[in-house]
Structure formats: C-alpha cells, structure tokens
Amino acid sequence: MSMPPPVFSVLLMTTDTGVQAQFQQVFGDTSVTVVRDAAELRKEVAKYHYHAVIVESRSATNEAQALWEHIDPSQTLVMIGSHAVLKRMAKTFQSLDSQNGYESHQSRTRNHSLENYLEYKMEEFVKGMRNGVAKNLHPMLISAVERPLITSALRETRGNQIQAAGLLGLNRNTLRKKIAELHIPLKQFQAKSDRAV
Q1: Which regions of the chain are under pLDDT 50?
Q2: What integer pLDDT is reported at residue 77 of this predicted model?
Q3: Are 183 and 145 in contact (CB under 8 A)?
Q4: Are residues 92 and 19 in the same domain?
Q5: Residue 165 is part of a domain; what is its CATH number?
Q6: Is 147 within the bounds of a domain?
Q7: Given phi > 0 = left and psi -120 to 50 = alpha, else beta, which region is 98?
C-alpha cells in the first residue's frame, strides 16, 4: 500500500546531513525528498510537482536553468543558496511554524497526515464561523475542498480526465459534470500538457 502524498512536498538538494535533518524536522520526514546532485534534481522535478524546491549551491546559474525547464514559479517556491543560507532558511521556517501554532499541533499528534492537517485547519475555520452567523457548514466546506481536489488531480494528470477520474475514484462523466459545476478551466492543464510533449 502506498503512502498518501504529504501536505507540503519539498525537494531538497544538499549533501549536508545536518541541513537535511533540519528541513525534515520542519516539514516532516515524508514531506522532504533529498537529492545529492543536479542530475537527480532534474529527474525529480520532471516526474513530480513539488511545492518547494530548495537547492544548496554557490552558483545558482546551472541549477536554475535546469529547474526552469520543469517548474512553474507561480506554482512552486524555489530557493537557491549556499550552505549557510539553507541553514538560516530552515530556522526561519521553524520559527514561522511555532509562531503560527502549527508546531504544537504537530508535536501533539506526531502525525503529519493530511487528515490531521485538515482537522487542525477546520478547527480554526469552524471556531471563526461559530462566532458569526454561518449555517450549513458541511455543504460549504465540501464544495470548498472539492474544487482544489479536482484541480490538483487534473494538474497531476496534466489534464487527462480519464486518469484524473481514476485517481479520484469517480466516473469520467461525473468528473466532467463537477468540472462544469465548479467552473474549473481546463485550458491551464492542456497548456502544460502541450509544453511537456
């Protein structure tokens, strides 16, 4: 049985085990994929969409050129820097987590699953809505989660609706109906598919 994808996936290129450990502590072991050289980096970014790509390098030009072929900078956070810069980045992320209170939630659960992350975020949302006059949260939240889920599946399958339907466990006609109902533009996925060919 395969593991579910992490909430926030990070591709990290470094040979320093200390830097690796820092990022794994911040994002969770399953969220960080570590590569050691530019060849591995190119293979990874070509086969999977990462939320962040972090590269240890003294000269950013070679690695950056390899990345821009496969990464949409509007969809992926890219950071390239020296060993010292990467260490500072990891500390910054760690302090942001603790300021937002997510670190304490993670330490309580010790489980970086999507379900726990959503539960944490839903608690905040429901508390905020309870103080207002909101009703019918269930259908509102289901539709709020459904659109990004379908969009992510289409992005992962590069707009292939048959594959996306299979990934989601839906009938292809049901998926088409939901795409229309949720006003999900398909051109963005088809353009990426054309570029990849």
Answers
A1: 1-6, 102-110, 192-197
A2: 82
A3: no
A4: yes
A5: 1.10.10.60
A6: yes
A7: alpha
Please name which of 141, 103, 115, 122 lies closest in space to residue 25, comparing C-alpha atoms.
103
* pLDDT reported for residue 197: 43
Q: Among 189, 187, 194, 195, which Cα is nearest to 155's?
A: 189
The structure tokens listed for 91 are: 């500390």
Question: Which two tokens mark 184?
Answer: 């999900």
Q: Are residues 142 and 74 in the same domain?
A: no
Q: Within a domain: residue 63?
A: yes
52 sits in which H/E element: strand 52-56
Put residue 57 in one of left, alpha, beta given phi > 0 → left and psi -120 to 50 → alpha: beta
Q: For residue 191, what are the domain limits?
A: 135-196
Is the Cα torsion angle 81, 85, 86, 92 positive or negative in sign? negative
Number of domains making up the chain: 2
What is the pTM assigned to this prediction?
0.47
| Coil, helix or strand at residue 127 | helix
The residue whose two tokens read 């889920």 is: 149
- What is the identity of the amino acid at 48? Y
Which amino acid does the sequence have at 157? T
Give the strands of the sheet with 32-35, arranged side by side.
Answer: 32-35, 10-13, 52-56, 77-81
Number of neighbours of residue 71 by Cβ within 10 angstroms: 19
Q: Is residue 180 part of a domain?
A: yes
User: Within its chain, how far is the Cα of 124 from the centroid?
Assistant: 21
